Amino acid sequence: MKKKELLVIIPAYNEETNIVRVLDDLEQPEIAEIADVLVMNDASSDATNWIVKARGHALVTHVFKLGYGSALQLGYKYAIRRGYRYVIQMDADGQHDACNIPVIYKRLREKDADGNYPDIVLGSRFMEGSAEFPVSSAKKLAFKLFRVMIQLVTGRKIADPTTGLQGLSWKAVLYYSKYNHFDDKYPDTNMIMQMILLKFNVVEIPAVMHARESGESMHSGLKPVWYMFRMFFSVLAVVFRCKILKIDEGAGQKGDNKFEYRKKIS
């Protein structure tokens, strides 16, 4: 059987009521033929672990809850070790429709007008062509703030600055997999800004997403207040790191990181 070059990474915490439907969608032939699935179970106390095991997908289970960002970063390390060329990350709560997978995968392999491939493809809820997505007034305010911050610092307009639906090239995955390159809690606006500042090729496309139907969001209750506070200062930290200290300056322009060569020797 020919090895697949695409890995779908799904961080999951207590998602037993949603993950069955997500896996059902990912097991449809049009998805299963092009992608393997890795579920990062972040110490769930429900049956998430057993559901994924029974379906036969790759599974990593944390003994202690490490957070959304840590789950993703460990998934990136897995992808690098196993030689996947592309990664698409999506949520386990059913908000990210599986129909986006082939579209993002196709865009990752398409050159732009300058002959460059994307390093990161963002699936957006708020572009022309995106499916309608309900958003509260508080979240609208947060999105507007983060859009303004990205535009002021990078000059780029990003319609959906907190999207968790993203496609990554091997180069972006390799960068994220390294120590201190990725937020271990809420990798959203701050990481998008960081990658733009480091000259990675970040593009945005319309996506189909749905509101969560059951279970508890990681942004429920008073968590959004803490999230906004933390994200604001995380963005400032990224600006200081990239624009003042110039750490990893131009990392996104340093070739393709020799994927073919590294794949042969790994």
From TrEMBL:
MF GO annotations: transferase activity
Pfam families: Glycos_transf_2
Domain Glycosyltransferase 2-like: 8-122
Keywords in alphabetical order: Transferase
InterPro entries linked to this entry: Glyco_trans_2-like, Glycosyltransferase_2, Nucleotide-diphossugar_trans
Protein name as it appears in the record: Glycosyltransferase family 2 protein
Originating species: Coprococcus comes
